[in-house]
Write a structure and sequence with these properties.
The structure holds two protein chains of two kinds. By secondary structure, chain A is mostly beta strands. Chain A contains no helices and twelve strands. In chain B, 0% of the residues lie in helices and 53% in strands. In chain B, the strands form two sheets. In chain B, strands 2, 4, 5, 6, 9, 10 and 11 form a seven-stranded mixed β-sheet that branches. A four-stranded antiparallel β-sheet of chain B has the order 1-3-8-7, with no helix packed on it. Classes of the chains: A mainly beta, B mainly beta. Chains A and B meet through strand 5, strand 6 and strand 11 of A and strand 4, strand 5, strand 9 and strand 10 of B.
Chain lengths: 115, 120
């Protein structure tokens, strides 16, 4: 069965430092996609980065990179050079190709960036 | 980039009344839209998947008679919370997937800004 786990309910990071948000998943579908979203206090969901299960290289988008370890079924998000505006809730999500493209989300990690 | 407009952003209604939430894709056609509910301090829960021109597929445990979903066109899906009660108070978010599957900025998915429903 599909499952997404984010074990860190809250994280603190000093401004300008890097931080890693953990995400593990479980699926029997060989073809799937992994996503990270940011949800600021305003509530809007903002797409950050995507990794396909067959992608050979780890995805990167600006300051965001996804550390994809397929054998371990982990898809950690790395944010480099943290900024105060990065303080938000971060959700890891997975979409199975054969699952009708619905997406399931992890419980989320609250990131606090300290000045 | 792709934009999904969700309206209203906030709504307060009396217990027993119905509330309609709209989700519109502004610059692309969305064959599939998803409705999520976010409980306080908890993750997003997928409520249902709606496909244009057909009945919505509800997730287990979601009352389809209470949460009516209509996807009458390729740019509009609506969620109606019928006979709302205080326990229905929540944050509801829609997302849309384009017909081609790939739109700028989201790898096929774009989220609305959410609707905060408060039932008093």
């Amino acid at each position: 069965a599909q499952k997404i786990t984010q074990t860190q309910p809250g994280m603190f990071v000093q401004e300008k430092e890097a931080v890693t948000l953990d995400c593990t998943y479980d699926t029997s579908d060989p073809s799937y996609g992994l996503f990270w979203y940011k949800q600021p206090s305003s509530g809007e969901m903002i797409f950050l980065i995507y990794q396909g299960s067959y992608d050979q290289q780890n995805a990167t988008e600006g300051r965001y990179s996804l550390n994809f370890q397929k054998a371990r079924k982990s898809a950690n998000l790395v944010i480099s050079a943290s900024q105060l505006g990065d303080s938000a809730m971060y959700f890891c999500a997975m979409r199975e190709v054969t699952g009708g493209f619905k997406t399931i989300f992890g419980a989320g990690t609250r990131l606090f960036v300290k000045a | 980039g792709a934009v999904v407009s969700q309206h209203p952003s906030r709504v307060i209604c009396k217990s027993g009344t119905s509330v309609k939430i709209e989700c519109r894709s502004l610059d692309f056609q969305a064959t599939t839209m998803f409705w999520y509910r976010q409980f306080p301090k908890k993750s997003l829960m997928l409520m249902a998947t709606s496909n244009e021109g057909s009945k919505a597929t509800y997730e287990q445990g979601v009352e389809k008679d209470k949460f009516l979903i209509n996807h009458a066109s390729l740019t509009l899906s609506t969620l109606t919370v019928t006979s709302a009660h205080p326990e229905d108070s929540s944050f509801y978010i829609c997302s849309a997937r384009s017909q081609g599957g790939e739109v700028p900025g989201g790898n096929g998915y774009t989220f609305g800004s959410g609707t905060r429903l408060t039932v008093v």
